[in-house]
Amino acid sequence: MKDIRRKVRRAQTISPFGVGGIIDLQGESFVAADIRSWGNQGDPVDSPRLARKLGVRGFRAAAVIPSGKAQYVSRRGPGYVRFPRWLFCPKCRMMTHWRPESEHRDKPPKCGRCSSAPQLAPMRFIQVCRDGHMADVDWQRWAHSRPEGHDQRQCRMKSLKFITTPDSSGLDALKVACITCDAYRTLEGISQKYILKQIGARCSGSQPWQTSDDECDDCEEMPRAVQRGASNVYFPLVHSAIEIPSPSDPETDDEAAQKVMNHGMWEELIETGYAPVTDVIVKHIAKKCDVSAEFVDELRRAHTTDASAGPVVDATVEDLSIAEWAAFTSSDSEKGSTADFSVRPVGLGAHEDEPASLDLLHHRVHRVVVADRIREVRALEGFSRYESEGRERLVSVNPVARAQWLPAVESHGEGIFISFNEDALDEWESSPAVLSWVEGIEGNLEASFQIERLREKTGPRLLPRFVMLHTLAHQFIRQLSYDSGYNAASLRERVYARSHPVGSRNPQQAGIFIYTAAGDSEGTLGGLVRQGLPPHLANTLVRLLESAQWCSQDPLCADSTGRSLANLNRAACHACTLLPETCCEIGNTLLDRTLLIGDGQVSGFFQPVIQAAFEESAAAIDAS
To answer: Is the distance from CB of 597 to CB of 611 less than 8 angstroms?
Structure first.
């Protein structure tokens, strides 16, 4: 892999351009290679809770190269490989199967036939399979798949041309032709399910970045042709954790231990095990961190034992939301603040003479906490293609061996946490109309190919409160984008409404946390915390509930019985509820405005608040 550099933001190396993802840069197309391309590069990211959940020793963030100094520094980031390899000249339309040895440093591929040397463009279609493999479409086979004579049937030349005709505006106006035997075929029908199987194409069983030294899988899955930028080409599996104080974990609280684990050679020390060089590394770290060699060695032994003694941890076993919920709802949360987690309860700011709408809102809101400082770690475990079918088809970030570390990114920001009155929720959830309404969504969820991924968030049963609070979080982000100074794409949600198995002693959850997630670009501006303080928060909640009443797509949106993939949404569309994909933790699914505001059949949790607010507005107009 040649040292050819392009710029990509550190956060994008996790999603959407993490391992296996395709990125377009100024007319060029690349795919991110697995973590073997990182070598020993990368900055360590500390997150003990997330590491235990995923069964790895640690995390690394892509190394940051100073702007304008890429050609002078030896550090390099993750590897990206040009893909697809089949390119065509936009002027002469000749197709070229590009080879890595043809690359020139910091220069895009050029056409060698045209005098103006235009930049070559990547082909629009590629092939993927359900097992996560990806490769170029065999265009030579495609062009000769409908031969008209003996010469065309026997032709094995790869002298191809990508031709466009003015006859149509569809795919039938595009054709791949062989200039040797004049065989050709248009792209009409290329996206059909069995089309590649019909021409005899097979799955390569590999990824575009794999070399001849890597053993290809003997894949029996049927390849399917998709557009390079299609949403089903890449489904990254990203886990996130809010870093909270952990009194039960002495290593986390111990500043000396943290200093040792943040040293650049810590990961190398863990990987060496009991090799002869171990003692040398231990002494070096001890000297640099101003601790004893015995302290470093004990810390190394503890981590080595923890990583190798037991079986691999299933990522679904430990629910990180339980500890986060306890940290936000604890009465001593303000006293337990750290440099990465600083919170304080503030409430809604009740007054004796407040209107009925705010009084009803106070009855539903239990606790308000503003987070002046939080740290979130997001780690990429793997990806899937074509269909997000859970772990059975997950491609690891290190496909040749069990990953000892995962690529990750950390961001610092601020947020607002709101928990809701459990008695009011129980009364609302016990309504037969509400239960019947959510059972319909639950049935669609059971039939969805996303069920395994979504169950990690909803728990074994989809509760009405989850759909309602998830919708509230989306409406909250939309309203905050007007009030707080952050745009919607800079905010993220965490919904605490997961159901627990029967007999579980875990506390019932009912809350949302809205926080900044783009710390590398906007940082902590303070606008979000200000909106969480009284009286701003109560006014924001009333305004978002009023705006949730209306949608420009009504009555189609309000009366919908199924939207989005697998009909997992009800009254929710781009005009009223949906957010950028970076904001939502479950991909804009399980949303329904009806459970917020109610309708003629189903009572909304905040319906009394909205009715009281409308009556107050009408009374104010009459009085004037």
So the answer is: no
Burial 272-292 (b: 16+ CB within 10 A, else e): beeeeebeebbeebbeebebe
CA–CA separation, 386 and 234 (whole Å): 7
**Other CB atoms within 10 Å distance of the CB of residue 148:** 11
Strands 58-61 and 80-82, by their bridges, are unpaired
Q: Which helix (H) or strand (E) holds 539?
A: helix 536-547
Closest CA to 350 of 342, 360, 340: 360
pLDDT surpassing 70 at residue 74: no
Nearest to 238 by CA among 132, 390, 380: 380
35-48 per-position pLDDT tens digit: 998 888 888 999 98
| Distance separating alpha carbons of residues 303 and 266, to the nearest angstrom | 11
For residue range 190-238, what is the model confidence (pLDDT) as tens digits?
999 899 999 999 998 999 998 877 778 889 999 999 999 998 899 999 9
Whole-number mean pLDDT of the chain? 85
Structure tokens at 622: 């009459």
- In whole angstroms, give the CA distance from residue 237 to residue 396: 10
Here the contacts of 436-441 (C-beta below 8 Å, separation 24 or greater) are 437/464, 437/592, 437/594, 437/595, 437/601, 437/602, 438/462, 438/463, 438/464, 438/467, 438/595, 440/561, 441/467, 441/568, 441/570, 441/590, 441/592
DSSP 8-state class, residue 417? E
Type of residue found at 227:
Q
Q: How far apart are CA 592 and CA 570, in angstroms?
A: 5
CA 125 to chain centre: 24
Closest CA to 337 of 376, 374, 377, 378: 374
